[in-house]
Amino acid sequence: LESLLRLVQEVVDKHSDTDVLETAAQTLEKLCDDQFPIFSRCETNRSRLLDMVSNRYRESLDEYTNLLTGDEEPDQDEVYALVSSLKKVSIFYNCHDMGHWNIWSGLLEIVTRSRDCLVEKQPLWVPEEAVKYCLLGCYFGLLWDKNSLADNLGGSTTHDSITDLKERLAKFMQVSKEIMGLEGAGAQLKEEAFISICDLLIVFGHCGEANGQTPLKPLAFKPDEGMGVLLNIFIQDHVFIEDEDEDIDDHQKIEELHKRRNFLACYCKLVVYNVLPTKSAADVLKHYVTFYNDYGDIIKATLGKARENNKTNCAKTMIQSLIYKFNELQQEVAGIDRGSEDFHAIKELAKRFALSFGLDALKNRDAVASLHREGILVAVNPLENPEDPAGAPPNLAFLEILTEFTGKLLKQDKKVVLGYLDKRVAGGVPNSRGDDWAPLNMYRNSLVHGEGDEGRSGAGHQAKRQYNRKRRRSGSDEDDDPDDEDFRM
Questions:
Q1: How far is CA 312 from the centre of its chain?
Q2: Which of 83, 265, 334, 353 is 20 to 30 Å from 436 at the Cα level?
Q3: How many CB atoms lie within 10 A of CB 485?
Q4: Distance (Å, rounded) from C-alpha 45 to C-alpha 41?
Q5: Is the peptide bond before 382 cis (omega within 30 degrees of 0)?
Q6: What is the distance between the alpha carbons of residues 430 and 67, in angstroms, rounded to a whole number?
Q7: What is the pLDDT of residues 17-47, one digit of tens each?
Q8: What is the pLDDT at residue 474?
Q9: What pLDDT shows up at residue 250?
Q10: Is 409 left (phi over 0), alpha (psi -120 to 50) or beta?
């Protein structure tokens, strides 16, 4: 045992290879199990090794900082010593609680100073890799501290220690968020900041809600809208991209794909665990068909879990993602060509969403109805076509996409939806219907299918009171829609 512990220490002292250091840290973690009789001897050796790791970091940082203070440029050896020592800190902080070594605030200071350099568009004062290891070290430190507070509730955990962790968490989240939003920040920094934020939101998002953990409630961290937007932008920029580099080999492509899948899974977990509102998934769902081979399983699972959480919000998020695709297509080309490949792709996406509702129409009744209402509101707003006063509303083609969901409505609900539609476009339909009105005919026909045309007045009779409320924000994450006057099923 003594030989093994000595060799682990020697390996950590001499090597800087990631796999070697991780194996050494994990070996020490397994040996330092307090159920083993050898625990006390291993614990003593661990303390000695962590002393060495933290001292090496402090010494290399002091040397590096002193050189910069004296207007000298650190040479290759000094840069390597700093990066290597921080790498060891991050790897050992992963497996061992280094809280007693008081290095957390120093690591955050390096990250903060680096953020300041990026804000001022100055070169980083330490290598980017060193900042990445500091981010990792801070992240693991927060997890260990939260774990320690939870384990010692009713004991050494005090109000002050909870407040201290809350403040440090807020600082770390803020600096990570800023790094993610800075153009000058390198890819590996943004990636590390993204994963740290996502994981910490899962750990702290519902803090104190578990049985017996009420004192930890002040630690609960809810992302603001700005953080949600930044996380979504990261996903769009780093996950939903085509491989343009033909030079990289297959192994590298698989590695890249694995990394992107991990990013997407991190983001989707935030929706599944109600840390981000369900509507945050709309920008992910819109890629379901386009990136089906790469991420189809993750998006499908997210859709399923979101539906379990709240069927209506999930349906609204589906329609929101279709609206995004529809709007993008409108911006790309002047006027929607319903025969185009891109329009067909949106219909295909709607078909996939419709299939995901399954066969039980009764179970999904409210959700499907709210989806149709949101879709109709998009199609008929604005009702007037600024390009052609006699023409159809500019978004009317959206009704053709909405037709994919008609089969999921109950027979009696089709009448209510039809009445709602007819009240929305009443008086706006000319007698001579051109091709631009075809989506309205298609949608109406799908609603009266098998019943004969109900006619406007007959269908309107089903919903006596006109829907006069202002349109609510699409995808709003309120629990379930209150009964709409014009939409009572």
A1: 20
A2: 353
A3: 13
A4: 6
A5: yes
A6: 80
A7: 999 999 999 999 999 998 999 999 999 999 9
A8: 39
A9: 84
A10: beta
DSSP code for 484: P
Token pair of 175 as six digits: 């600096």
What is the C-alpha to C-alpha distance for residues 225 and 229, in angstroms, rounded to an integer? 6
Question: Which two structure tokens, joined as six digits, stand for 8?
Answer: 């682990």
C-alpha to C-alpha distance for 423 and 93, rounded to whole angstroms = 64
Residue keyed to tokens 């067909």: 344
Write the DSSP assignment of 230-280 as a string of letters.
HHHHHHHHHTS-----TTS-HHHHHHHHHHHHHHHHHHHHHHHTTSS-GGG
The per-residue pLDDT for 198 is: 98
State the amino acid at position 118 in one-letter form.
Answer: L
pLDDT computed for residue 461 by the predictor = 36
pTM of the model: 0.87
Write down the pLDDT at residue 372.
96
Q: Which residues of the chain have pLDDT under 50?
A: 432, 450-483
Query: Largest alpha-carbon pair distance within the chain?
Result: 94
Structure token digits, residue 391: 């023409």
Query: What does the alpha-carbon distance between residue 299 and residue 307 come to, in Å, rounded to a whole number?
Result: 12
The answer to whether the beta carbons of residues 453 and 406 sit under 8 Å apart is no
Please give the full DSSP string across 391-410, using - where no structure is assigned: S--TTTTHHHHHGGGGGGS-
Q: Which two tokens stand for residue 312?
A: 């209506």
Q: Alpha-carbon distance 294 to 461, whole Å?
A: 48
What is the CB-side half-sphere exposure of residue 429 using CA atoms within 13 A?
Answer: 18
Place of tokens 């379901």: 288
At 53, the amino acid letter reads: V
How is residue 232 written in tokens? 């979504």
Q: Which amino acid is at 229?
A: V
The encoded tokens of residue 167 equal 């403040």
